[in-house]
Design a protein that fits this description.
Blueprint: H1 2-42, E1 46-48, E2 51-53, H2 57-65, E3 88-90, E4 99-103, H3 105-116, E5 122-125, E6 130-132, E7 136-139, E8 148-151, E9 154-156, E10 170-175, E11 181-183, E12 187-189, H4 193-198, H5 210-213, E13 238-243, E14 246-251, E15 254-256, E16 263-266, E17 269-274, E18 277-279, E19 290-293, E20 296-306, E21 312-314, E22 318-328, E23 334-339, E24 345-359, E25 363-370, E26 374-390, E27 392-400, E28 414-427, E29 432-435, E30 442-454, E31 465-467, E32 469-473, E33 485-486, H6 497-500
Parallel strand pairs: 3-5, 4-6, 5-8, 6-9, 7-10, 8-11, 9-12, 10-13, 11-14, 12-15, 13-16, 14-17, 15-18, 16-19, 17-20, 18-20, 19-21, 20-22, 21-23, 22-24, 23-25, 24-26, 25-27, 26-28, 27-29, 28-30, 29-31, 30-32, 32-33
Antiparallel strand pairs: 1-2
Length: 503
């Protein structure tokens, strides 16, 4: 009995093993499926021409073209959002109409208040809509960091004087924010025409460099007389202003027809601007492209600016500024200053302006200071500048004055360590104008590889001019700049930037 039982047991085991063969194939299939899921879980999607792909897709497609397969394909992958874990607040969801007529200011403010509570949130201004928005401040400091203002539509300023009261200094303002990004393909339209028409040109300060072009300045009259009943306020707003913010950026957008300055950064640290377009007529008054004041660690590159004043204006309190690969014109060129207005102290240091193309501008690269000021501008480099039909390509003017008469004063902002190198092209008035203070001469002004050819137009041509300018010429100049005094002034005590700009 014991043996028989043993045989029965062996037979039963063999029979069970025989029956288990199909199940082994099935188990083999399940193991393959598990491996597929493991691979699927380990796949990392990447973007290619706007789509997301997996590393294993080509493998599955090859198997599929070879015949029908029962191997399951990985499920489609949902593309991740542009900003991880971001919450999007579309202004349309807050009541904006986007018809260019209805006032959408409250809707924009509502979207901002909601986004302000969420880190890395997105305020969306969608394409194909025109939003009429009045003066508004998108403010912190209680907002969460890294908010994205996604501008793909158009924001247009109101043209009714009643919306501006007695006048405001800015239209769209972002204050006391961290990590804010304004990006997209949209437009900020300042409706500047009504301001330029209503605001008399005779009341606008005149760019002092015009005196170098016209010995007797003609009285300016506006050729654009307002057809509106009642004019706009005398105070004209900047289109887009940042104040007291850290690590902010602007990219991709267009800013046009600003009543005053187009884009301004004041008291900001960590600024990046790239791939933007600024555009206003060349005769629009005081419409600087980008204005920097009391801001540090600034990078501006790969942009085009056409306006009625400085393409980029760098004012007091700025340091570590790098401007590269820009197109400028029409306009007044790229300027540092005016510094030291109303006997104030001005301090600017470590500025590099390179790879700039300028066409039909009043100035090329210049530094302008007022008489009576104090402080220092040092460590400034203008490099690889291409000028075409520029009136005054290289300018230092320590007698800047935008009024009819300015008082003569002996003190001035000290200028040291200024380098002009690789500047080429054509000029229509004067190639080099270096006018420095008697009391505080310019020191360490260096010229290298400058080649400027006159182009006779409607203006009288002048030779290079220097006054109280000391430095070096490191290569042959065209034209020759014999007026530059080689070396340093014998009687001048040169003070360091830190001494002049100490707190």
């Amino acid at each position: 009995m014991g043996g028989l039982s043993f045989k029965k047991i062996v037979f039963a085991i063999a029979f069970m093993l025989l029956l288990s063969v199909p199940d082994s194939e099935a188990n083999s299939g399940r193991r393959t499926s598990k491996r597929g899921r493991v691979m699927e879980g380990s796949l990392w999607p990447w973007r290619m021409k706007g789509k997301y792909f997996h590393a294993s897709h080509h493998h599955h497609h090859r198997r599929r073209t070879g015949g029908k397969s029962n191997t399951p394909y990985p499920p489609p992958v949902t593309p991740p959002p542009q900003t991880p874990n971001s919450v999007v607040y579309n202004v349309l969801d807050f009541g904006a109409k986007g018809d260019g007529i209805t006032d959408d200011t409250k809707a924009f403010l509502g979207a901002w208040v909601a986004a302000c509570r969420e880190e890395a949130s997105v305020v969306e201004v969608p394409a194909k809509y025109v939003f009429l928005v009045g003066p508004i401040s998108f403010s912190g400091p209680d907002c969460q960091p890294n908010i994205v203002f996604q501008l793909d539509g158009t924001i247009i300023a109101p043209t009714s004087s009643s919306r501006w009261g007695s006048g405001l200094l800015q239209w769209l303002e972002f204050t006391k924010l961290v990590g804010l990004k304004i990006r997209g393909s949209g437009t900020i339209d300042g409706s500047g025409d009504v301001w330029w028409q209503s605001f008399p040109f005779d009341d606008d300060p005149l760019d002092d460099q015009s005196k170098l072009i016209f010995p007797e300045l003609p009285k300016r009259h506006s050729s654009l007389m307002s057809s509106l009943k009642g004019g706009m306020p005398n105070i004209k707003p900047t289109a887009l202003r940042f104040y007291g913010s850290f690590n902010v950026s602007v990219s991709g957008i267009t800013i046009e027809r600003s009543p005053h300055c187009h884009l301004k950064f004041d008291n900001c640290i960590g600024v990046t601007v790239h791939d933007i377009l600024v555009t206003s007529p060349g005769d629009s008054p005081n419409t600087d492209g980008i204005h920097l004041q009391n801001s540090k660690d600034v990078l501006i590159h790969s942009s085009t600016i056409a306006c009625g004043d400085d393409c980029v204006s760098i004012q007091t309190g700025c340091s570590n500024v790098f401007i590269d690969n820009m197109k400028c014109g029409p306009g007044h060129g790229i300027s540092i200053g005016g510094l030291g207005r109303d006997n104030t102290k001005a301090c600017v240091s470590n500025v590099t302006i390179s790879n700039i193309s300028m066409y039909n501008t009043m100035n090329g690269v210049r530094i302008k200071t007022w008489q009576g000021g104090s402080g220092s501008a040092q460590g400034i480099r203008f490099s690889n500048i291409q000028v075409s039909e520029v009136q005054l390509p290289i300018v230092i003017d320590q007698f800047y004055c935008d009024k009819a008469i300015c008082k003569n004063q002996s003190s001035a902002v000290a200028l040291t360590g200024i380098n002009f190198e690789n500047i080429h092209g054509t000029y229509t008035v004067k190639p080099v104008h270096l006018a420095c203070s008697d009391g505080t001469p310019c020191v360490d002004i260096n010229l290298r590889n400058v080649h400027l050819i006159p182009l006779q137009e409607k203006y009288h041509l002048y030779d290079p001019f220097c006054w109280q300018t000391f430095g070096h010429i490191y290569s042959p100049m065209v034209p020759s700049v014999e007026c530059l005094q080689i070396g340093k002034p014998s009687s001048n005590k040169i003070q360091a930037h830190d001494e002049l700009c100490e707190l």
